[in-house]
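Q: I'm writing up a methods section and want to include an example of the input and output format. Could you take the sequence below and give the corresponding predicted structure tokens, formatted cleanly so I can copy it straight into the document?
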Amino acid sequence: AQGYITFINPAAEKFLRLKAAEVVGGDVLDFIPNCAVTEVLTTGRPIRNFKNTINGVTYIAHAAPIIDDSAIIGAVASFQPFSEIESLADELDVVKQLCKELDAVISCSYDGILVTDGDGLVRKVNAATIKLLGLGSAQHPAGGEAMPASHLGAAITAKVQRERKPCSLSCQINGKTVVLTGTPVFDENSR
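A: Here is the clean output for your methods example:
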């Protein structure tokens, strides 16, 4: 394997601002300086998340060797615009901020709030719920640790899972009559 370009697809042509007619047959380093492909050809090890810039476009590349009969005969690379990754990172930051805000709302509520996942494992519980159920700090999840809903509000969790719609029921907890309300939240696959 010599590092000559044998193929470039139309998406890579457009993204890297190169033309197949000009680059096919040429040395990859003449067109893509610091290309991860040359290291892959030398070491035989794949490279992921290699950041580079060509023609004013910053991208992340992934490269892997093409091996035939234990010999490296070439390499293949894929490119992803760094702007897409930055956009995803920005979106993740927004989601993290929304999670913090939701956590603040849940923890500040005087109503008991208990959040379970689809398997009935408790994912969030606020101080009002802990007080209402008479639990000590060692008996409830902390730091995102899940626990079975049988410990906390199992009856309403089971009813909501079974009926797949908002439900309410009353029960006795520590000598008090309490109304529990559960509302299912479904993902895009209705689970």
